Amino acid sequence: MPNRLRRMRRNEALRSLVRETHVQPNDLIYPIFVREGLEEPEPIASMPGQFRHPVRGLPTVVQELRSVGVSAVLLFGLPKEKDERASSSCAPAGVVQEAIRTIKDHNPDTVVMTDVCVCAYTPHGHCGVLNGEVVDNEQTLPLLAQMAVSHAEAGADVVAPSSMMDEQVSAIRKALNGQGLADTAIMAYSAKFASAFYGPFRDAADSAPSFGDRASYQHDAANARHARRELRHDVAEGADILMVKPGIAYLDIVLRARELTDLPIAAYAVSGEYSMIKAAAERGWLDERKIVLETLTAFKRAGADLVITYHAKEAAQWLTDI
User: Fold this and answer.
1) For the chain, what are the domain ranges?
2) How confident is the prediction along the chain (322 residues), in pLDDT tens digits per residue?
3) Phi/psi of residue 74, each to 5°?
4) CA–CA distance, 179 with 223 (Å, rounded to integer)
5) Phi-psi category of 236—alpha, beta or left, where left has phi over 0 and alpha has psi -120 to 50?
6) Taking CA 100 as the corner, what is the angle to CA 96 and CA 102, rounded to the nearest 5 degrees?
7) Can you spell out the DSSP letters for 264-299?
8) CA 208 vs CA 126, 149, 151, 211, 278: distances in Å
9) Which secondary-structure segment (H or E) carries 100?
10) CA 260, chain centre distance (Å)
11) Is 82 a catalytic residue?
12) 192 counts as catalytic
């Protein structure tokens, strides 16, 4: 007798009954750009529908997210002042530190994650301290650790080092534990690839490098085995969550990460992915809702537990409507 595999696909009720992969609003993390000294939200030209936000406006943003079931945010800071040592990145009254406190004062149950990198805090835009024109790994580690501690002291639940320095997770874990902050989790940007998909983000965060590129410390897009080594190192160094970035073009890396560890895996649907979908949808070339939900499902199907996405609010609303 023929095996009729189509039997369980013949109507939505049956398809829904046997659906293997599910996306929920509480799987989503919303990135927020916070600019110091801003009075009103500032549109980001290369990311339609996204804004740089003032600190005082964050409770409203977070409450809107909470109303559709999104309970986690990832903060990126844009300071007024930049210097070679990224001094404002660790300041107790820095933009991210103030943002954390503001969110926690108004929405204490929101999971606040913070990006730990100095690219937006330096005039050169690289992700660490420079020695000539080379990013110095060893000089950068104490700065990242200090930045992470300052975020944790302000109330961050999760710190997320993205600078791709060797042993950054270990340095941050040691610093957090040494300051009595052992309960602060680390989401490691373990498999962060040098990618053209980051262009709109660098516009949004004012963090483009003033010379050269970041290929000497971010993964080569061709190297899956090398990324797996980095994932293993971050597990050994004490990471609590592993991240793969970008998302759509790196689903094979998400799968490799899932096979490697039982730790939670996050996939980052980055700015270029968001802007491509928005641009195509604005021209009527793609159905934005269907494309977004399909890509989110792909992240989950590949093994991601969490998805960082600029579409979080809309996606949560669409998921509720299904």
Assistant:
1) 22-239
2) 668 888 889 998 988 888 889 999 999 999 999 999 999 999 999 999 999 999 999 999 999 999 999 999 999 999 998 888 888 999 999 999 999 999 999 999 999 999 999 888 988 777 777 778 788 889 999 999 999 999 999 999 999 998 888 899 999 999 999 999 999 999 999 999 989 888 887 777 666 666 656 677 777 899 999 999 999 999 999 999 999 999 999 999 999 999 999 999 999 999 999 999 999 999 999 999 999 999 999 999 999 999 999 999 999 999 988 6
3) -125, 115
4) 37
5) alpha
6) 115
7) -EEEEE-HHHHHHHHHHHHTTSS-HHHHHHHHHHHH
8) 8, 25, 23, 9, 22
9) helix 95-106
10) 21
11) no
12) yes
What residues contact 305, with CB distance under 8 A and at least 6 apart?
A: 27, 264, 265, 266
Catalytic residue chosen out of the listed positions 245, 278, 300, 313: 245
The CATH topology of domain 22-239 is TIM Barrel (3.20.20)
Options 80, 82, 104, 192, the catalytic residue: 192
